[in-house]
Design goal:
mainly alpha, three-stranded mixed beta sheet, 5 helices
Length: about 100
Amino acid sequence: MIVIRVPFLWVDGMALFPFVLVRTARPDAVLLHHERIHLRQQLEMGVLPFYIWYLIEYGLRRLHYRSHYEAYRNISFEREAFAHEGDLSYWKTRKWYGFRRYL
């Protein structure tokens, strides 16, 4: 994981394999772990398929929830990352394609 500070980033963090873009100079461990989970998802699927799936799922959930925030929080990739972001050892025991449990 290569962390790069991007002060004008519109979100706190973003994973773009193998980089994690962060807005602040000192991101906390939970944010970095959340993004590390996304890096693992991207490694499994490939970066382009990951983002295609992400955008399709976001669009479907946006139609369903009619709220950006609710759609974002219910994307399977995000559900997995938010569920385990506080468990800093999760990436060691995570099964491949673990996000499928959150579809």
